[in-house]
Amino acid sequence: MFKNNKRHGYLIGLSAVVMAISPMTFDGAAHAAEKGIKIGVLLPLSGRYASAGQANKRGVDLVVEEVNRNGGIKALGGAKLDLVVADDASDQVTTAQEARRLIGQEQARFLIGPYATPEAEAAAPVAERSGVGMISTQASFDGLFERNYKFFTSVSMTSSQFGESYAEFVDWLNEKHNAGIKTTALTFPNNDYGKTASQTAAAHLKKSNVKELDAFGFPPKVGDMTPVVQRVKAIDPNAVISIGYLQDGILLHQARVAQNYTSPPIWIGGSDAFSNDRLWQLLGDIAPKALSGKTFALAQFDNGVKTPGVEWLVSTATKAGFKHEEIDQGMAAGAQAAWIVVQALENSKTTDPAKLAAAVHDVKLPADSPRVTMPQFDNGVAFEASGKPKNPVALFVHWDNGKKTVIYPTKLATGSYAW
């Protein structure tokens, strides 16, 4: 089934034709089993973030297929999960419109998505007013969790947690490998996520007596990173922390190679901009120079990590016909969001939207559960009262000849770097 439908989005249990439905109630397990449980999927299947949204969707589908094939949600009489999919087109206005449609017209009981912070900022108020929960796959702006939303959460680390992780890795390089990082420059997308992550990193580095020489943002839809690289090169720091998305990363690496400024200095970047599994292939001939040497990448996932959840994802996706590089962070995040919703349905035994949203915030999964597909949850899946992921752990990887090795933290390492 998967092999034949993979490129068409895995419309598993999906009402393929969008149509209006009359209001209905879900008061009992028998009724839920009879009607199925409508879960809205609101992701960027086109536009700037399409590759990430499509990967998220593949992860959601793997979980839904697994659950439905094995008897549905048993706590609700074997109810099957019925996905209703919408493309937010990587656009805030479209995201808000589609959120309203999924909740109002399609009567989705919960929403998985959107992907990025800007779209989450558009959709979260819609969900809040409607009393329907949503779990983003990558939204990370701390401000989203400071607005007292009852119906929003994310499987991603927050911007400040990213920033802290960069600083902790610099400390680790200095302490364990005598890296000699005394000065840094920070580059970031000039949005809420990038600003918060860079400011937090700088604040923590200052405590470690690592001097920030400069920090500067670039437009979220930047078309050329050459000026950024030239500016960094002019101040010549020991290390550069570069925060960005996949598209930013490709442009950055192209500019680094063109300016012959790859290693030194030490480059530490993330997450998709440096760790996306397709990055080596997308960069082509310049990949070895751009990604090898003293270049490291922050990641929330790596398919080589030996945890039960990652092994479940790799095994399931491989059987479904996916290539190794397609089993990436996007897929893992989609699967993680879906497993959290499944766990909440099982725990709460209800499809009442408000109760289900509360149950999602209350989900706890031990780190060794096969339902923990993102190894960043090395302390287990749990959420703070605000909906922010609790105590996540960033991975740092190094590329070598097209393959990645996790070198930090030691507990999750798949190899080491010969400093």
Classified in CATH, the superfamily of the largest domain is Response regulator
Oligomer state of the chains in this structure: single chain
The overall number of domains is: 2
Task: Sketch the major β-sheet.
Answer: 7 strands, mixed
Q: What structural class results from the helix and strand content?
A: alpha/beta
Shape: globular
How far apart the termini lie comes to: 46 Å
Q: Can you tell me the CATH class of the largest domain?
A: Alpha Beta
Structure summarized in a few sentences:
The chain has 16 helices and 12 strands. It is an alpha/beta fold. The protein folds into 2 domains: 210 residues, 3-Layer(aba) Sandwich (Rossmann fold), CATH 3.40.50.2300; 158 residues, Response regulator (Rossmann fold), CATH 3.40.50.
Structure characteristics:
single chain, 419 residues, alpha/beta, Rossmann fold, 2 domains, seven-stranded mixed β-sheet, five-stranded parallel β-sheet, 16% strand, disordered N terminus
